[in-house]
Amino acid sequence: MSEAPPRRDRNLALELVRATEYAALGASRWVGRGEKEEADGAAVDAMRLMLGSVAMDGVVVIGEGEKDEAPMLYNGEQVGDGSGPQVDVAVDPLEGTELCANGQPNALATIAVSERGTMFDPGPCFYMEKMATSRDLAHLLDLDRPLSETLRAMASEKGVDMGDIVVIILDRSRHEDAIREIREAGARIRLIPHGDVSAALTAVTEDSDVDLLYGIGGTPEGVLAAAAIQCIGGQILGRLWPGSDEERQAALDAGYDLEEVLDRDRLVSGEDVYFSATGVTYGELLEGVHFAGDAAFTESVSMRSRSGTVRKVSAKHNRERLRTMIGERFG
């Protein structure tokens, strides 16, 4: 008698796409209207509504803040329908609230899921120093040596002039010294106003014109980016960066090692990691939500680390039926 084929495990990827699609659709009605809180609220409400139908027993590790400050998708909230696998969940229903409010590129709705207990909880630390790059250059990353040396090593590895190396970095005053060092080394810079996750994905994508993400950005975005990088390859390194003496002391009191370098396996250590993102505004990675007549169109990416599968999902939504299902606010 022949052996029975192995049982296929549940693939949450497309269920998570529905959650980011709904969040993006919710936020899209506020694109360019200058109301970032309204846009974020609509995205959170829509994602939470859809997550209630996903077959998982999830706990939000990276969310919208503490329970009293964020009534929806707060850290520690239970999400999913309670069935299926026990998982950690990281969400940013609207990465780039100001990008959305101002109608600028690269606003995303994002979510990541991995096995319970495998996502790094940054505790009181909101920021981290981080760098990310593709799999071919990953062995060159080092947070403890001068940035200019890393850039020279990248140029040598690629066999290109230093002027061909591009670093993507948030446009913040805290990066003035790093920007000066990068330019003095001869590399080029792409300054962005917001959008750490999309920037990290751009940096790790093979054949991208960006070689390195560098800078001090949000720890939640670092964990979300690490989940995606587990699926598509590349590397991210991070080190917690307390923004005040009080935050530093709180981190030390909680037992955090502020010198530890956190790589992708430390940030998200699961063996079965899912990541989904849907474009809210147009970007290099994904098209934004757009409308034509009675239809709304979305573009998403869905990833799974175990299989290494990356899907692009283009969807057409009937706006009238969408409003019937989830309310006027979202359609």
Which strand-content bin applies to the residues?
Answer: 25-35%
- Which runs of at least 5 residues are low in confidence (pLDDT < 50)? 4-8
Distance between the termini: 54 Å
Shape, principal axes of CA atoms: globular
Q: Oligomeric status of the shown chains?
A: single chain
Task: Say how many strands there are.
Answer: 13
- Please tell me how large the radius of gyration is: 20 Å
Proportion of helical residues: 25-40%
Sketch the topology as an H/E string, one letter per element: HHEEEHEEHEHEHEHEHHEEEEH
Q: Biggest β-sheet: count, sense, barrel?
A: 8 strands, mixed
Structural class: alpha+beta
Describe how the helices and strands are arranged.
Layout: H1 13-28, H2 36-51, E1 57-62, E2 78-79, E3 86-95, H3 97-101, E4 108-115, E5 127-133, H4 147-158, E6 166-170, H5 176-185, E7 188-192, H6 196-204, E8 212-218, H7 219-232, E9 235-240, H8 245-253, H9 264-267, E10 274-279, E11 290-292, E12 295-304, E13 309-318, H10 319-326
Parallel strand pairs: 1-3, 6-7, 6-8
Antiparallel strand pairs: 1-2, 3-4, 4-10, 5-8, 5-9, 10-12, 11-12, 12-13
